[in-house]
Amino acid sequence: MKEKIINKNGKSIRIFSAPAVVVGSGAAGLCAILRLNEYGISDALLVTDGMKRGTSRNTGSDKQTYYKMNISGEAADSPTAMARDFFSGGCVDGDHAYAEAANSLKCFLKLCELGVPFPTNRLGEYIGYQTDHDTRARATSAGPLTSKFMTEALEAAVLEKNIDILDGALVLSVIKKGEAVCGLLALDTKGASNELILIKTNNVIWATGGPAGIYADSVYPVSQWGMSGAAFEAGALGKNLTEWQYGLASVSPRWNVSGTYMQVIPRFVSVDEDGNEYEFLSEYFGKDEKKALSLVFRKGYQWPFDCKKALDGSSLIDLLVYREKMLRGRKVYLDFRKNPFEIENFTADVLDEEGANYLISAKADFGTPIERLRHMNDPAYQLYLGKGVDLEREMLEISLSAQHNNGGIDVDMWWQTSVKGLFAAGEVAGTHGIVRPGGSALNAGQVGGTRAAQYIARCGDFSEIEDDEFFAFAKDSYESFSMLCESIADGSESNIKALREEVTESMSLSGAAIRNSEKIAETLEKAKETLKNYGKIAKSEKNELPDALRLRDTLATQVVYLSAMLYYIENGGLSRGSALYTSEKGKAPEGLDSIFAFELEGEGKGSKVQTASLDRESLKVTCAERAIRPLPEGGGFFENEWKRYREDGNVY
């Protein structure tokens, strides 16, 4: 990394330069910068607005899963078999499915060598278990903080190699020369002056995580916003933006209430403004407590909201939680202190055969939910206790929350976006489809970071333009953001917190698990109007300016995502995956409001992906569909593949 100061119009501007830059310090970003170093680009630069921010570092679940090829016992597995399972999720490009399968062991074993404590048996096999949408028991876990362990191990390796890190830099804009990247504009968030800085490079790996900031009801940590808007404004295509994963999560702290938290059968309670409590599952299911509690049990391993399970399956629980909060205006809680349905002497008989056998096998067919939880999985209790919530003494507030974006930025088989030199890795890259195996996101981030770094090292553009020429390309972006910063931080009373609540709550109501075309259209127009007039509307203290600019990026992201959802509806899209689209022709679960009436998409609809392109000036989003790229044929004759590998160009 090089640093210098140039003077333009009486201003001193810092310019950093590096042959390649990674934006983001989560598991995918740290993998990418480490790989660049290993592939020979020792002076690559990691840019982050905070090394300890982001989802990888600050989130987890009951047993956070990493998905890789099965390499234990007599399990029959192969890249082809794994790729087929990825591909079967619908709306998945075949080259992504195959690359993520073929590189899974390479990336997984790298993490093991770096010290991530994935378990082995006494013979040294990395044993696995079956996760959702998984046919071969490919899942493994280092516990509820698997992704945190990954970032810590990767960061230690990065620091050991003395890789350049520009910490406290919030990237705001991608600078282009024609149709290719030539640099970045960022805000120095550590300096008191909120200085804008420039970074000169032709190769960027965008690893900013999922666009967590667009939702109020979210499992993502508060520190995770995402910066997808800057990539869209640079011309990067969005892909499958309609496809998300939602599920039940605690509000504070933000954490999935999956696994054991559901399998111990907690009591579901809502509380209105006057403090009145309602055990709403009892209200809905009446005397059929066995059905109600069996569905709660299944939420443990069927955690994501799934339209296929919404009429009479476990996802009916998600809808009831949504109704209490969003339609009735109540707060919703899990109560581990008492048994549901006023059960005094809990036995396994209150569940169907599946749930009963599970609790009997776990010797947990007794007592209260908290007693069962502490017996079966005391670390799950200790996790909340360590975050200031004692489940033995208080209820846990929950909501139906956004957890993962299966879509994202469209990338090719080397994770390069539609903008030359701009790559995307991790959740920000849209390589998943309608559904995906649990834990595949952690694998995808490592594979994407590796593939992007590999391509840059072999085929990247390492030419360097002069500073004056670079500033000519950066001038418009630099000046517009300078004026925006001055307008936002003009000394007026701050409204950023209130504005963020308004913006994100409307998105959670209209564009989350339950989607209605009229509400989506209303939220979209409001987001466009706020974005167009952002400098006049948004006001912040100087120390809030980074959050104000993140919120602007959030609005740009919302415009693209809401436009994609509206296009999907207007072109006949029906409910699928984790998104229920209200339909007048549809059917609602018995006794629920018409907003929950839906039609399921038919089989064979996953053969196309939707793309979205943002015009930065007009804020018009152009959506289209294209056929998925087919699943490639793996393998090959060794001598031919060896020759192709030696000649590089035929591989890349």
Textual characterization of the structure:
- This protein is an alpha/beta fold and 652 residues long.
- The chain has a domain at 246-402: Alpha-Beta Complex (Flavocytochrome C3, Chain A, domain 1), CATH 3.90.700.
- Helix content is 36%, strand content 17%.
- The chain has 20 helices and 24 strands.
- It has a six-stranded antiparallel beta sheet with strand order 14-13-18-17-15-16. A five-stranded mixed beta sheet has the order 1-2-10-9-8. The protein has a five-stranded parallel beta sheet with strand order 7-4-3-11-20, with helices on one face.
- A hairpin with a 2-residue loop joins strand 1 and strand 2 (11-17).
- The mean pLDDT is 95.
The gist of it:
This protein has 20 helices and 24 strands. The chain is α/β, with parallel strands linked by helices and 652 residues long. The model has no long low-confidence stretch (mean pLDDT 95).
